[in-house]
Amino acid sequence: MTEVFATERLVLRELEDADANFIHQLYTGSDFRRAIGDRGISSLADAADYLKKVLQNSYREHGFGLWLMEFEGQGVGVCGLVKRDYLPVPDLGFALVPEAYGQGFAREAAAACLSYARAELGLPELLAIASMDNEASHKLLQAVGFKPNGMIIEPRSKESLCCFRWTARWTEEGA
Asked: What is the distance between the alpha carbons of residues 27 and 153, in angstroms, rounded to a whole number?
């Protein structure tokens, strides 16, 4: 297990091959597909393939990616940084299994990801995108410091998405 960082309640770690069941559960959920989109996962084999080719490959290619959020040893969602071809800088992404809604996990993980992006990766800014009707994500993004930044058209789906921008705050010591 490659732990990336921990918060008061969560461990965020790199996704492993053994997490294919969790990815299948999360990515095939109706809430995920409605709010985030269909990633072409319909079977456990699809989830394992996506895990290797997309999620794990991001760690090697970019040094970051979506990390598994664990609470008391159980996966509750993913949160992390995604490099998308159509965005100029990485974006913050997150998703929870329905059983984890309303417990503050996404906000806690998102805030920790921003600290990690600034302190460990030296990223001066991030973007985040969300469906126009995903008010919960809009509220969360603004609560952790993102500001509305117009709209963007997702090239594959042609969906209009709300865009948010976060700019790192640096102290004189550089932290």
From this structure: 22
Question: Which pLDDT belongs to residue 175?
Answer: 47
Is 174 inside any structural domain? no
Q: State which residues form the domain around 148.
A: 3-167
- Identify whether 139 is part of a domain: yes
- The phi and psi torsions of 106 (rounded to 5 degrees) equal -65, -45
pLDDT value of position 153? 95
| C-alpha to C-alpha distance for 10 and 6, rounded to whole angstroms | 6
Inside any domain, residue 109: yes
State the CATH number of the domain containing residue 127. Answer: 3.40.630.30
Would residue 175 count as lying in a domain? no
CA–CA gap between residue 24 and residue 20 (Å, rounded): 6
User: In the numeric block, which tokens belong to residue 84?
Assistant: 């998308």
Report which of 159, 22, 154, 141 is spatially closest to residue 84, judged by C-alpha positions.
Answer: 154
Question: How much is the pLDDT for 38?
Answer: 81
> What is the mean predicted confidence (pLDDT) over 116-122?
95
Burial class of 87 by CB neighbour count within 10 A (0 to 12, 13 to 18, 19+):
middle
Contact assessment for residue 101 and residue 111, using Cβ atoms and an 8 Å cutoff: no
